[in-house]
Amino acid sequence: MDLLPLEALTTPAALVDLDRVEANLARVAAYTREHRLHWRPHTKTHKTAELTALQLAAGAMGATVATPREAAVMATACDDVLLAYPPVGPSRLAQLMALPRRTRLTVALDSVEALEGLGHAARDAGRTVGVLVELDLGMRRVGVQSPADAVALARAVAATPGVTYRGIIFYPGHVRVPVEQQESALKDQGARVREFVDALASEGLRPDVVSGGSTPMLWRSHEVEGLTEIRPGINVLNDRNTAALNACAWNECAFSVLTTVVSTAVPGQVVVDAGSKALAKEEGLAPTGGYGALLDRPELVVRSVSEEHGLLDVSGTSWRPRVGDRLRVVPNHVCAAVNLHERLHVLRGDTVTATWAVAARGW
Amino acid sequence: MDLLPLEALTTPAALVDLDRVEANLARVAAYTREHRLHWRPHTKTHKTAELTALQLAAGAMGATVATPREAAVMATACDDVLLAYPPVGPSRLAQLMALPRRTRLTVALDSVEALEGLGHAARDAGRTVGVLVELDLGMRRVGVQSPADAVALARAVAATPGVTYRGIIFYPGHVRVPVEQQESALKDQGARVREFVDALASEGLRPDVVSGGSTPMLWRSHEVEGLTEIRPGINVLNDRNTAALNACAWNECAFSVLTTVVSTAVPGQVVVDAGSKALAKEEGLAPTGGYGALLDRPELVVRSVSEEHGLLDVSGTSWRPRVGDRLRVVPNHVCAAVNLHERLHVLRGDTVTATWAVAARGW
């Protein structure tokens, strides 16, 4: 495509700073190399084949996805795909079985019902699908509850034609503890993982894959004993919540929403055209609250949002942008924000050098 | 299209119950006829030309929109479109000016900057665009603050070639008061509107259009003195928040999300495949909290959501759906939920009789 200046974009527009993306990729690549962890980024964060290709080029060994559509899109760039979501229902299974034959597919699940459906679909399709048994390590969302349950399900996996047992998976997304408690939290996580691994090993079901990790504790993943693979999603783009957790620096935030000031009629307030439809209405972990902050003035916060309106509180400053001015907002949660946009505009500096379809939205 | 049974749909899927839509339309049509109010529904709720066509057939006199894309889509079904959003920036203005010549376009604004841009664009396009001066009646989002400011802006509108002054507009979306305080709230609103109208009239700028109204107080709109037009959006589909406000009955909720149980591994909890990406993460006004409730068991609540997971608390009941079962969830805020779906599946009973593209998503 032709190069475009930033000013030519219609707002609200989703922007990706490619210099920052490359730095973020290099950092996680170096980290995972140093600690001999497999790096399988969760691609739901960006939902584009293009960014998956960059992640693979930087050293990722495969892609993680949450939906069959994400699997289909990422399979155009990547031959090793993990669906970290229970594959339940005939249409989801049909979508999965329609993946290219070359795609090495692995699926996480926590129930015999999901396993049976997957086994049937795989046999009908003449494929072999890898399975990871999902564990609940305290997040209480999905996952088997005890080592005995894990052993029972792993045994069922091993006995089901069409699928092959590959190991265990968990998501420690609930582990967001203050720095001084992180070491013991990671030790606890490692001890809990070991209970499951030992129980499985004693039944001849030692997991080849022990898949964990999340962005908030990304840089300490190596402290979790026994981990073979991490699946950070957010860290390729980062966001305001990740910065609030000190899991990235503010200048590692590679995603922002370009927005236009549309009203300054209410004193002390600036209204921009990025509301919940552009930023997502996701609670903030930053102590200053709100739904996002200005890239260049992170102390200025989008205090409230309705669908098409973002309300910036400027009462504490003398800065007064005018109707028509453009601002860039870093949202609290990048995955939710990306999902609201049809395309990502890719920047080098202030020049749009490419536009990527967010092809993996939906299901 | 061929008729489909509900079971054939991939989940999560957005469903619209057409019998309920028709009843909702008939009720608001009768109400606005009785009270001689113009009915200009806000089509951001459903974002489809098909539902706009049904609203016009039921008696609506035009469509309200929030974005240029909504304007373009609704203009295929409706020749009288109100953009209830400041038209700021060259690309938004270009999109508006590209509307069909037959479209009677009116725009709400609250600043001289927005007015000047619109006037330029209209003159360049050889069109005349109607303008409503936006008032802030207490919501503190957009809108001029005082009758004097309204007079100044209306005067500027009247003096700007390419645009024509049509009246005033406001959004009383903040008025969500207990039933026993509604009468005085509506009287206050009427008194405030009268201040603005009197000030404008005394300067020869009496508004032909006085546009207000929202779903929460819809059925008492006639108590606001001087109102000529109402713009309810949600009431065509309704949602859990509207039911919580007693502005609709639960069986008037015409929108739901079909979802599949994907995990029951955590005791007392059922996980469905409708999370924040399918329901939207919008705070609930219902006293039972959460992000949505089951259509057939409204006491069962989606307690928390992540992107692909909705967590139903079933600990207080003996009901235990199984992995693979399908449920229908009514979300808190229908507009935000519709915006997340590519299409609406239209039901008569349990049969899908049509599928409508949510063509007006994005900007």
Quick structural gist:
The structure is a homodimer of 363-residue chains. Chain A contains 10 helices and 18 strands.
Give the key terms.
homodimer; about 375 residues; alpha/beta; TIM Barrel; Lyase, Ornithine Decarboxylase, Chain A, domain 1; 10 helices; 18 strands; globular; D-ser_dehydrat-like_dom (chains A, B); lyase (chains A, B); D-amino_acid_metab_enzyme (chains A, B); D-serine ammonia-lyase activity (chains A, B); D-ser_dehydrat-like_sf (chains A, B)
Molecular structure report:
- The structure is a homodimer of 363-residue chains.
- Chain A is α/β, with parallel strands linked by helices.
- Chain A folds into two domains: 219 residues, Alpha-Beta Barrel (TIM Barrel), CATH 3.20.20.10; 116 residues, D-serine dehydratase-like domain (Lyase, Ornithine Decarboxylase, Chain A, domain 1), CATH 2.40.37.20.
- Chain A is built from ten helices and 18 strands.
- In chain A, the strands form two sheets. In chain A, strands 1, 2, 11, 12, 13, 14, 15, 16, 17 and 18 form a ten-stranded mixed sheet that branches. An eight-stranded parallel sheet of chain A has the order 3-10-9-8-7-6-5-4.
- In chain A, helix 4 crosses helix 5 and helix 6 crosses helix 7.
- The radius of gyration of chain A is 22 Å and the shape is globular.
- The model of chain A has no long low-confidence stretch (mean pLDDT 95).
- Chains A and B meet through helix 4, helix 5 and strand 11 of A and helix 4, helix 5 and strand 11 of B.
- Chains A, B: One of its GO terms (molecular function) is D-serine ammonia-lyase activity.
